[in-house]
Amino acid sequence: MKPINEAHVAEPGLAVVEVAAADDETAFAVQELLATRWAIAPADRTTREPGEPGVRLRCFLDLRQHPGHEADERV
């Protein structure tokens, strides 16, 4: 995977989550679970690292926002 971009963790509440799983289905299930609680920029595919088992997935979380809530609703 590419190095984490500084902008993705530039402020408190921003996080990068890397998931290692046996298969695509499991990795996407974890991402979906995260999306039920926080705003995320989801991954659309997984990657395989040569010599490492399973697949990898990286998504970006904004812990300051909850899914489905607009900024003006948080007043």
Which terms would index this structure?
3 strands; alpha+beta; 16% helix; three-stranded antiparallel sheet; 75 residues
C-alpha Rg (nearest Å): 14 Å
So what's the overall shape? flat
Instruction: Please describe the biggest sheet, giving its number of strands, its sense, and whether it closes into a barrel.
Output: 3 strands, antiparallel
Which class do the helix and strand fractions yield? alpha+beta
Structure in words:
The chain is of the alpha+beta class and 75 residues long. The protein is 16% helix and 25% strand. It contains one helix and three strands. The chain has a three-stranded antiparallel beta sheet, covered by helices on one side. The longest helix has 12 residues.
Short description:
This protein is of the alpha+beta class and 75 residues long.
Layout of helices and strands, plus pairs?
Layout lengths: L13 E8 L2 H12 L3 E3 L13 E8 L13
Antiparallel strand pairs: 1-3, 2-3
